[in-house]
Task: inverse folding
């Protein structure tokens, strides 16, 4: 059946591909090119589709905008706040779940629940938990003598609140991936290490971690990239605002503001392009580092 | 790690984590059934003294969640069916037909997966407004009826189906299209269910795109309607929690029924890297 390509087979293939390509070219490939071009449109009039000039002024303006700089900083803080904790917690939970205990299926289900639920809905629930006077979190903290914290209205605590919500939401996904990775590790490596008298910590460090490094590598890429794209959580948690005093303004939120609230299409496209570059660079860095240090079985 | 911790320590650690994961859902349900005077009680009331189902009817009276529900259902069902159809056809071409430009087209498609969806937002909005589709069902559905990830996943599955099957079908005089529909598709059922479930979850929970392309209340999906409800309901947390419950519960039910496929799908997407 896999014969040499002919014009006839090409035509047939194109017929099969037509519906998918029509959608993907219009809504995936063309906009990638277009968004790159739009970032160079200055004085762009969207309603009349008039482009007055092309140039780098959007990018210059972007990096002179203190809000954009803050959005970049906040996004980096968010990534640093979420990714390491989430990876450590989910790896630990995955290892516990993998240790041949009863009810591990039930636990897995519970940890995975947030993943299938709407970000908007759970963020609203969390905004109620974070309530400064009647919220559950301050109530629990009160047991330990902590004074009520204005989680959602104090600029110092808005980002921690967002980070807590995001870790809770994303934990299940990472656990599932780690579990899949752990289950593909051959039991005999552990047995061999045990016979050689390796301690539990040693076995973890010298057997589990190296064999799990492809999975770690994948989870880190996905987590970092997803964290760079955070938006829904912020919109719902702070009721359509980027936190008190822009304390939860991130790059995607900045794109949304410029694009949808201020109709600055050129500037918004330039900001989106910066996001793309960041995500792209991280993928490349991780690929290079990954190739050097990742041990494949 | 096995002997480092005793069984009971493992259970205690996992149980503490599980409480942390479940607490928001329990608190949501509990608040959604409380009478207004119990909502802000301190210390918190965990089990409402009386189940106050009125919160749900009251939430429905403030905002048309039934309408939002129908919208979400329409968008989710049609875009899932659309994605399945385009994916089956495209995956067949990539796995069973040899044609000019095959590798280039496939590489370009895989390359697009590296671009974050947020980058496509603005040009897609411009395209849709040129088509006059802003604030229509088409805008909510059509851009989401094809997915490179799904095509890739199904192509891998199709490649594993023995070639002899298609030779046999050809000898029996079965057309290629019928072969795809009556042999390949039934064989690929597990992969298709996985693709469909991940799509349903994403589609049901999507927020930024429906927020941007709809203006009128009649076209809001559940997440967009819920987000607007936070201003409409004011600070009545029992109503907010009732509304959140209505958004969350359908996906929880789906997850409880189909969790085997959903978890397998997520695990598979991770193992490939």
Result:
């Amino acid at each position: 059946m896999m014969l040499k390509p002919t014009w006839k087979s090409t035509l047939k293939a194109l017929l099969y591909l037509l519906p998918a390509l029509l959608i993907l070219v219009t809504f995936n490939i063309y906009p990638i090119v277009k968004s790159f071009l739009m970032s160079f449109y200055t004085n762009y009039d969207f309603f009349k589709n008039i482009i007055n000039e092309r140039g780098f002024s959007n990018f210059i303006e972007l990096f002179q905008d203190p809000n954009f700089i803050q959005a970049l900083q906040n996004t980096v803080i968010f990534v640093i706040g979420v990714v390491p904790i989430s990876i450590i917690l989910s790896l630990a939970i995955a290892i516990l779940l993998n240790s041949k205990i009863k009810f591990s299926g039930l636990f897995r289900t519970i940890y995975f629940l947030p993943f299938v639920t709407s970000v908007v809905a759970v963020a609203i629930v969390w905004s109620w938990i974070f309530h400064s006077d009647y919220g559950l979190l301050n109530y629990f903290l009160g047991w330990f003598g902590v004074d009520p914290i204005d989680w959602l209205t104090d600029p110092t605590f808005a980002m921690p609140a967002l980070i807590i919500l995001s870790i809770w939401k994303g934990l299940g996904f990472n656990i599932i991936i780690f579990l899949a990775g752990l289950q593909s590790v051959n039991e005999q490596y552990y047995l061999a290490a045990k016979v050689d008298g390796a301690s539990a910590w040693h076995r973890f460090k010298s057997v589990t971690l190296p064999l799990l490094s492809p999975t770690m590598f994948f989870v880190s890429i996905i987590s970092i990239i997803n964290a760079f794209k955070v938006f829904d959580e912020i919109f719902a948690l702070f009721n359509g605002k980027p936190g008190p005093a822009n304390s939860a303004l991130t790059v995607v939120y900045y794109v949304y503001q410029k694009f949808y609230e201020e109709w600055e299409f050129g500037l918004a496209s330039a900001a989106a392009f910066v996001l793309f570059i960041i995500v792209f660079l991280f993928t490349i860095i991780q690929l290079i580092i990954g190739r050097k240090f990742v041990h494949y079985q | 790690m096995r002997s480092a911790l005793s069984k009971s320590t493992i259970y205690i650690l996992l149980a503490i984590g599980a409480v942390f994961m479940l607490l928001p859902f329990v608190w949501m349900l509990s608040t959604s059934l409380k009478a207004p005077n119990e909502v802000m009680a301190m210390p918190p009331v965990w089990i409402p003294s009386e189940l106050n189902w009125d919160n749900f009817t009251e939430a429905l009276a403030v905002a048309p969640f039934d309408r939002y529900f129908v919208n979400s259902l329409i968008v989710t069902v049609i875009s899932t069916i659309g994605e399945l159809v385009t994916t089956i056809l495209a995956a067949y071409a990539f796995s069973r037909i040899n044609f000019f430009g095959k590798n280039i087209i496939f590489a370009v498609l895989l390359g697009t997966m590296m671009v974050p969806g947020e980058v496509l937002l603005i040009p897609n909005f411009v395209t849709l407004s040129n088509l006059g589709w802003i604030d229509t069902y088409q805008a909510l559905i059509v851009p989401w009826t094809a997915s490179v990830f799904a095509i890739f996943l199904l192509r891998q599955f199709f490649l594993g189906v023995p070639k002899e099957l298609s030779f046999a079908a050809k000898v029996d005089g079965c057309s290629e299209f019928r072969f795809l529909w009556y042999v390949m598709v039934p064989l690929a059922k597990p992969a298709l269910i996985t693709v469909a479930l991940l799509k349903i979850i994403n589609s049901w929970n999507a927020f930024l795109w429906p927020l941007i392309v709809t203006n009128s209340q009649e076209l809001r999906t559940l997440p967009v309607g819920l987000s607007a409800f936070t201003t409409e309901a004011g600070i009545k947390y029992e109503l907010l929690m009732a509304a959140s419950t209505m958004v969350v519960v359908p996906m929880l039910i789906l997850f409880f029924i189909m969790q085997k496929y959903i978890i397998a799908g997520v695990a598979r997407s991770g193992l490939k890297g």
Remarks:
- The first helix of chain B runs from residue 7 to 32.
- Chain B touches chain A through 104 residues (CB under 8 Å).
- Residues 38 and 45 of chain B are 7 Å apart (CA to CA).
- The mean pLDDT of chain B is 90.
